[in-house]
Design brief:
273 residues; alpha/beta; Rossmann fold; seven-stranded mixed β-sheet; 44% helix; 13% strand; globular; binds zinc ion
Length: 273
């Protein structure tokens, strides 16, 4: 293969990358590209029963299990408390150092429009890094990579001020089972906190079969990637031809104008192995 590409995803929490980029990451990793996932928070507020330190430790193990399932090189979790991510200088420098050290071709994160303050601020921090990552007198302790990365935003469902644009759309039907296996590693979230948060009072994953868990994940979270496929239908057809018409699940990405410029046709296939 040609030179492997390097992909760096910043999610706010230790399951966002899996959910928003997991399928694409699996395909890229299988093809020999280098994928690194980062959670900017340690996940220590994402539970109704567990204490914070214990939860952060558990969620770290969940990320490592998910990375192993997906064959992803590295899943880093930064030690910031949940619900407390701020767009401050310290965090800006930390994000820039991670980008410079990893030397990615592509950096992906949330848009800065989202329901969760941590998602918004993570998106803002990464957007702030897009230009500053190449400024030589900023963070002088970490050398600037030879080539500036392209920046992109991952799927969200928010429409104010406008819905996300599917500048690239990756079919994930072919790896959906592995993506679900990644989500299945985040037991504290998909089987404990999220059912509680959504009001499923008698939910008990301990009595569920593997098949029932798969159905639960598909019904409640898989549906987002059906919506993403529909949003990105035109792009799927451009990318995969007629096969794009029948893709059920997709992950979509919007080009960010703040990083390295790239022609639209090139960006459309950037995430293809
Ligand atoms: Zn999150």
């Amino acid at each position: 293969m040609a030179q492997p590409k390097r992909f760096l995803f910043f999610g706010a929490h230790p399951d966002d990358a899996d959910s928003l980029f997991g399928g694409t990451a699996i395909k890229l990793a299988r093809a020999g590209h280098v994928v690194k996932l980062v959670s900017v928070c340690n996940g220590d507020c994402g539970h109704h029963l567990m204490r914070r330190a214990e939860l952060a430790a558990r969620r770290y193990l969940e990320t490592q299990a998910a990375a192993a399932v997906a064959g992803i090189a590295e899943y880093q979790v930064l030690d910031n408390h949940d619900c407390e991510i701020e767009c401050n200088l310290e965090n800006r420098k930390e994000i820039i150092r991670i980008i410079r050290r990893f030397q990615p071709d592509v950096v992906i994160s949330h848009r800065a429009v989202d329901y969760h303050a941590d998602h918004r601020n993570t998106g803002q921090l990464v957007m702030d890094a897009a230009y500053l990552v190449g400024v030589p007198r900023f963070c002088e302790d970490t050398p600037i990579p030879p080539r500036a990365p392209v920046f992109a935003y991952s799927y969200d469902r928010f429409t104010d001020p406008r819905p996300i644009r599917a500048d690239a759309a990756v079919e994930i039907d072919s790896v959906m089972d592995v993506k679900l296996a990644m989500l299945n590693c985040h037991v504290s979230q998909y089987y404990e906190w999220l059912p509680f948060d959504k009001g499923f009072k008698d939910f008990n994953h301990l009595t569920m079969t593997a098949e029932q868990k798969r159905d639960w994940l598909l019904t409640h979270w898989g549906v987002r990637f059906q919506t993403a496929a529909d949003l990105g239908r035109d792009t799927l057809v451009k990318t995969y031809g007629d096969k794009g018409k029948t893709v059920k699940y997709a992950e979509i990405f919007e080009f960010s104008p703040y990083g390295r410029p790239m022609p639209a046709d090139e960006f459309r296939v950037l995430f293809e192995p």
